[in-house]
Structure formats: structure tokens, C-alpha cells
Write a structure and sequence with these properties.
The structure is a homodimer.
Chain A: E1 8-12, H1 18-27, E2 31-37, H2 42-58, E3 63-65, H3 69-78, E4 81-87, H4 99-105, E5 108-112, H5 135-147, E6 150-152, H6 158-167, E7 173-174, H7 191-199, E8 203-206, H8 221-235, E9 240-242, H9 252-260, H10 292-301, H11 306-324, H12 332-338
Parallel strand pairs in A: 1-2, 2-4, 3-4, 4-5, 5-6, 7-8, 8-9
Helix pairs in contact in A: 8-10, 10-11
Chain lengths: ~350, ~350
């Protein structure tokens, strides 16, 4: 795959190492949204950001921080992989609206309003009842719009997701999820959500996490690519990308943290079970970042054009990030000075 | 009023001073639940507890910390006012179920699941939509039941309040609120809530905060006492007490903090308005703790017996706290060793 082609993954949370960074580079990944927080509070999130910041000093040949689409284009030019900071929960802003601006300054460009459970902003998909967007949630949506931080509803409940699209002045993303009528995971999305996401010029990142795949770990590349073609019919070719949700080399204690945080005295197994509590094995055709080019082959094979394939694998996210990462009202001339 | 009579106020948040402690003592207050947190996180709540802990060293002649009903009886015997630590929000436990036990060890005996807004546990009464009790909320209710920390739903939304009564193994309290059909404040409670509260052997503390009073600051003592008589018919004489919500000598910046915390970039005026943003003036017959004995006179005057008056003004809360402050399964023999 040519170095000039844009390849973007909107969600990864791997056990980061030089091996993984080399794989990203080898596969030609232009940019990856890395998860900085699942349940961490502000101080813990800042510590996670610091850990990431050090990696740019430790691995400058592979990595560079991206806070704008220009940064991503520069990463492509230099043959490095751009890293975009993303939060899978709003726990990082705690109860403080002002922390949206603070975290944006620290590089965060994507934040989920919920992670499975009820948050102070909205309901997660695992709650019995869906509050929709709360009073604080409306304030935070407006503030994220103002700053240029993308709203991500991947783990949110249906009413909350639809309301977020109503309240947000800017398109939002579902960075990693698949359609519920393809695979009825509690995390999967209804056609109503997918249709509205496309209509509002949002983005859907399709997930390669086995619990989101029809047939789980046994899902074939062809089945996945057929689902992509089907979803394009609902959402539109301009609004589809990849959010692999790859959790490479993570020990099972990590998925336990994702599911339970600090909120439960009993153990919740999420998409797993008591007898199968760990991470599920990845499909054989998507084991790590080096398998990314296989997606291109799979999409071409089922009939996507070269152009459409490039849009799905990166160009769409690049355009969306280009529009979404800047503060409201910032013109292109002003953009460069924002990042000094 | 005899020193031996039990007089308990289930909610106060005054600008604490020697003057106020003297007034409490003079009026014969046996115990007062003092608010330790509105929006404070765990660390900030611990700082507030430390500030209170220092007051017991600074004002030993007036005050003593109460962690059990025996402590309250000892306060009565010694002629001091017992202080009970109460949280008006669950912000203090952040996202951590284990902080319920930690805060119980630090003396906290009452906690609201919400304060006006959506919390991680339930919905506040100011939210448009009511989530009911969340996944984390169910865990926290169970944990508060286990530890002996009273669940307070004063600022919660209706469905959340009714569900809390269903999920809790122990009776809960609404420490400071009045009936909505007497005064239709957004904070007032429906008859359905009041009836179920009585049926489940919970406690209602009637509020003297002007925005909860019919006629506001102009409400008369007789009107208030007639409302008490009316509520007794719904809730039952065993389940009524006082939760004055007295905020004596507080500057208006405090009510701004209560209403806005850190969650809003615009200013919310709560029960006030932009032209009337501050604390409302107290009724002339309830200016401070020294006016407590007037309540006794008012209740007697409209026909309550001496016995019923004593139940309303303190005996009911004492019985309720006696049952509610101990960990589940702790027998009376074991109680003393719990507090060493």
C-alpha cells in the first residue's frame, strides 16, 4: 500500500509497544485514535496523556501526535503514524464543564458521552432506562462543539444517541459499532440511528471487535465486507470508516476494568460470560495492524471501487476530522496559529 | 423546653459560627444533620469533614459528633447538640462503590442519590427525563443498606424516588421537602411518593426553606402546621419529622454554588430568577435555631398532642436513625464495639 494513501483507524486500545508501533507503520496507518480513558477521572486521564506524550519522545521514528487534519497529512508525508487522543468516557471531565477546554488543549479530540453505564451526560447502552441527554449533557455538547472535540456515541443508548444528534450543532461520530440487525449485540446500532447519523453528516466507524461481529471470532472477511456494503446503503458512502476497537496484547484484567471500573461490588461480564470472561480472540484475518491491507483487498473483492475503498479506509475520517477538530468559527487561515 | 426532650433537625447548611452553635444549644437541639457536600468530589468532601472535625475540638461545650443513636442520647444527656454528617449529593463517592464504606467510617450517615441534576445513581428533580435508578445506583443502594447509611431522595425525580424505595432493603428518607399539592415547587413531592414513603416505613422531614413554603417567606406558622397535620394523614404520624433546610447567614454565592456547581457555562437560577437570584428571606417565625420551640407551640395550637408533637420534633428521627445508622446484621450487643 502506497505511503501516500490515507489509512485511519478511529478506535484502538492496545497494550502499546514498539512491536505494535512497527506494525502500524508497516501497514501504512496514517492515524489511529487511541483510547486515553475508560473510567479514569481527570487526574488519571492526565497521567495517561503524559504516558502517551513520552512515547513521542521515545518512538519519534514511528509516531507523532495529531491535533488537526494538517498534522495527519504531515504524518502521511513523513511516513509516521499519527496519534489522536480519544476518550471512551466523560469520566475525565468529572462534573466540570471547563475541563472540556482543558482536555482539548492537552490534545483530546474525541470524547464519548457515555461508556455502557449512565454518565452525568447521557445513558449508556447497558442501562435499562435511557435518560436521554441530561442538563449537564446539553452544556457539554455545546462546549465540545465550541472547542472542536468530536462527540462519540458508540457506547450510548438509543434515545441518548438520537438526542445528541439533535442538540449538537456539528456532526457527531459513532467511532466503533456495527448494525444491530447484522449482529444483535447490545452495543450494536439500530437502522434509525445509522440513518440519522448519515443524514446529519456524521461518521460510523465499523468495528472488528469479535463481540460486534456476526459469528464472533469466526466471522469471515467476506461477511464483514458484505456488511460494510449493506451499511453504506443506509449511512452513505461519505460517512463510513473503520474503528477496529483492536485491543492487541491486552491481558484479561483490562477487559475486566473496562466492564467494571469501580462501580460494582459484584463482577459484570459485559459481552462475555462467567465461564468466558476474557477478551475474545480476533478473527484470523484481523489479528493486528499489519492485517489492515486485507480490508482493502476484501472491499475491492466484493465490488467496491478503488476510490470508495480509500474513502472507507481513511479519506472519510480525514475529511470529518478536518471539519471537526477545529474550534467553531476558526477559518483555515487561522488554523495554523492554533497549534503553535 | 426540657433538655431531656429530643429535638432533631434532619437538614441544615448554615454559615457555621459560635453564634449559631449557641443558638442550637439554647433551643435544645439534640441533633442536626449538617450538609457536608453539594457538588464536592471525594477529596473536597474529606476536607469539609476535616473542617467539621476541628469544630468538635474548638467548641466542645456545644457540639459532639453523632455516629449512632446512642451518641444522640449522650448528647441530650450532656446538653450538647449532636452533629450528624449528611451528603446532599453522591458526588463525594465519585464513581467508586468502595467510597460508601470509607465515608461511613468517616462518620457520614446520610447521602442523597442526586442533587437536582442527573447523577451516576439516579435522576434529580430538575431533569426533563427520569432515568430511574442506574446500574451503579442499584449497587450503591445495596452498599448503603449494608453499611448503615441512610438513602435520602429529597432532590430526586419521582420515578427514581419510587424505584429507590423498591430496591432498598431498608427504609429511606426524604429529609427536607413538602407536598407538591400544598406548594408546587419542582422540589415538592407527590402524594404517591409520600404514601409509599410511609408504607415502607421511611421518614419525611418537612422543610422550612421559603421556596418550599406556600406563600414563600410570607407563609404563616399556622399554615405550615396545618400542612403538617395534612401530611400526617398521608404518611403516618410515625414517619414525619423536620428537615428545616436552614441556610443561616449564608452569602448568595453559596446558593449559586448549590444551583450551578461546575456543570454549567450559563447561570442557572433554580427556584430563584435572574432578578431575584439570592437566598429568600426566612419566615419571621423561623429565622434561626432559637425559633425551633415555636414549631412546638404551633403544632400544639392546631391540635397535635404533646406526644405527637414530640414524635414530629425529634422522637421519630431518633427511632429512624437508631435503626438506620447501624450496619446490616449488627445486633445491639455488637453496636458499642462498632464505635470504638
Amino acid at each position: 500500500m502506497s505511503k501516500k494513501q490515507v489509512l485511519i483507524d478511529a478506535t484502538q486500545y492496545s497494550n502499546w509497544s514498539e512491536q505494535i508501533f512497527r506494525q502500524m507503520n508497516k501497514a501504512g496507518l496514517s492515524a489511529v485514535c487511541v483510547t486515553i480513558c475508560y473510567h479514569e477521572n481527570f487526574r488519571e486521564t492526565v497521567a495517561n496523556i503524559s504516558t502517551w506524550n513520552r512515547r513521542f519522545t521515545d518512538f519519534p521514528e514511528f509516531l507523532t501526535l495529531c491535533r488537526s487534519s494538517q498534522d495527519i497529512l504531515l504524518a502521511v508525508k513523513e511516513g509516521r503514524t499519527g496519534i489522536i487522543y480519544a476518550l471512551q468516557n466523560c469520566s475525565a471531565i468529572e462534573d466540570d464543564i471547563n475541563l472540556v477546554e482543558i482536555l482539548h488543549r492537552l490534545g483530546v479530540r474525541v470524547m464519548q458521552l457515555t461508556y455502557n453505564n449512565q454518565s452525568l451526560l447521557a445513558s449508556g447502552c447497558y442501562e435499562e432506562s435511557d435518560s436521554g441527554i441530561t442538563r449537564f449533557g446539553k452544556q457539554v455538547i455545546s462546549e465540545m462543539n465550541r472547542m472542536g472535540m468530536i462527540i462519540d456515541m458508540s457506547h450510548s443508548a438509543e434515545k441518548s444517541t438520537l438526542q445528541a444528534m439533535d442538540y449538537s450543532r456539528r456532526p457527531l461520530a459513532i467511532t466503533h459499532a456495527n448494525p444491530a440487525d447484522w449482529h444483535p449485540s447490545i452495543r450494536s446500532k439500530s437502522r434509525a440511528v445509522l440513518r440519522k447519523l448519515g443524514e446529519t453528516k456524521g461518521m460510523l466507524g465499523l468495528s472488528l471487535y469479535p463481540y460486534h461481529l456476526k459469528g464472533g471470532s469466526n466471522c469471515t472477511l467476506q461477511e464483514f465486507c458484505k456488511m460494510v456494503a449493506n451499511v453504506v446503503d443506509t449511512v452513505g458512502i461519505d460517512h463510513i470508516g473503520i474503528g477496529s476497537d483492536l485491543c492487541q496484547n491486552q491481558p484479561d484484567e483490562v477487559v475486566n476494568w473496562m466492564r467494571n471500573g469501580r462501580w460494582s461490588r459484584s463482577r459484570d461480564f459485559g459481552e462475555g460470560t462467567a465461564s468466558n470472561p476474557g477478551f475474545p480472540p480476533q478473527p484470523i484475518w484481523f489479528q493486528n495492524n499489519e492485517d489492515f491491507p486485507r480490508l482493502r483487498d476484501g472491499l475491492i473483492e466484493i465490488g467496491f471501487s478503488e476510490k470508495d475503498t480509500q474513502m472507507i479506509l481513511g479519506e472519510n475520517w480525514l475529511r470529518f476530522f478536518s471539519e471537526g477538530f477545529e474550534p467553531e468559527g476558526v477559518t483555515s487561515e487561522k488554523k495554523s496559529s492554533q497549534h503553535i
